[in-house]
Design brief:
By secondary structure, the protein is α+β, with helices and mostly antiparallel strands. It is built from four helices and eight strands; from the N terminus they run αββαββββααββ. α3 runs antiparallel to α4.
């Protein structure tokens, strides 16, 4: 959002900024509205990528081979293979998130899912929110880990 603050300062100074790809002039009537919408969309995409990093094992540098195979050629369906035939490769590529942190997030997600099932009962709801402990908060069914 520092981007929007900077643009507003430029607008106050009557400096026109033109975004070529979007064809938006900052000083036009709809310019700031469109830029605010684009900034909101970019923020949502960034949050989505962050969530993917916390939930997808590939971002730890590991890779699975042979987990699924094509069912038949014309279709795009895939069949799950025998777990014995699955090969896990560690340090396949540089990690984005540490494996320790990834495992911690997975444990918290499992705990949260169990508590969410408990919270479906009237008595369980109060228990579920109290049982999460310090540093973990729930906002609109998302787990936020405090540092």
């Amino acid at each position: 959002m520092d981007f929007l603050v900077t643009l507003r300062r430029l607008k106050e100074l009557k400096v026109d900024v033109f975004f070529y790809n979007e064809r938006i002039h900052l000083l036009s009537q709809a310019g700031e509205l469109l830029l605010t919408l684009h900034a909101g969309i970019a923020q949502a995409e960034s949050e989505n990528k962050s969530e993917n990093i916390l939930t997808n094992e590939k971002y730890t540098g590991a890779s699975l081979y042979g987990e699924t195979e094509p069912a038949d050629f014309p279709s795009t369906k895939r069949m799950v293979c025998d777990p014995i035939e699955v090969h896990r490769s560690r340090n396949h590529h540089p990690p984005i998130i540490q494996e320790r942190r990834f495992k911690r997030v997975q444990k918290l997600k499992a705990k949260y899912d169990a508590l969410r099932q408990l919270s479906n009962s009237p008595i369980g709801e109060a228990t579920a929110f109290g049982a999460l402990g310090l540093g973990i908060f729930i906002f609109m069914q998302k787990v936020v880990i405090a540092k």
